Amino acid sequence: MLLFLLLMGIVGPHCTSARTHSLKYFDTASSGVPNFPEFVSVGLVDEVEMMHYDSNTKKAEPKQDWMSKITDEDPQYWERDTQIGLSNQQVYKVGIETLKQRFNQTGG
Ligand SMILES: *[C@@H]1O[C@H](CO)[C@@H](O)[C@H](O)[C@H]1NC(C)=O
């Protein structure tokens, strides 16, 4: 019986967290679209936005309380995520320019 309870204690928490969650990032690059940033990155957990970066603010920012609190354990998190956003923004900018050339796109 004791062994059974111990097993329940070990296995139990894993069983309750075994449901499926999702983590998605949507990166959108554009050029010449009025009132829309050239680069936007949105992170979602279970379809709920939890982070946002765009080329106007040039800042990765939390969209949920639990993402704001991440700095309690990892004070550099948002600075690091901002650097990733800036870096991806540059990569996508080059990609857009390449696409424009390949498709003879002169406008945005
Ligand atoms: C772009 O223009 C060049 C030169 O006129 C042409 O050879 C090429 O097929 C064009 N590309 C597309 C995707 O229309």
UniProtKB/TrEMBL annotation:
Domain MHC class I-like antigen recognition-like span(s) in chain numbering: 20-106
Stored Pfam families: MHC_I
GO annotations of cellular component type: external side of plasma membrane; extracellular space
SUPFAM superfamilies given in the database record: MHC antigen-recognition domain
Top-level taxon: Eukaryota
A single BP term in Gene Ontology: immune response
Key words of the record: Glycoprotein, Signal
Presence of the UniProt keyword Glycoprotein in the record: yes
TM ranges: none
Annotated signal peptide: 1-18
UniProt-listed InterPro entries: MHC_class-I_related (IPR050208), MHC_I-like_Ag-recog (IPR011161), MHC_I-like_Ag-recog_sf (IPR037055), MHC_I/II-like_Ag-recog (IPR011162)
PANTHER family: MHC CLASS I ANTIGEN TRANSCRIPT VARIANT 1-RELATED, MHC CLASS I-RELATED
Protein name: H-2 class I histocompatibility antigen K-W28 alpha chain
Naturally occurring in which organism (per UniProt): Dissostichus eleginoides (Patagonian toothfish)
Taxonomic placement: Eukaryota, Metazoa, Chordata, Craniata, Vertebrata
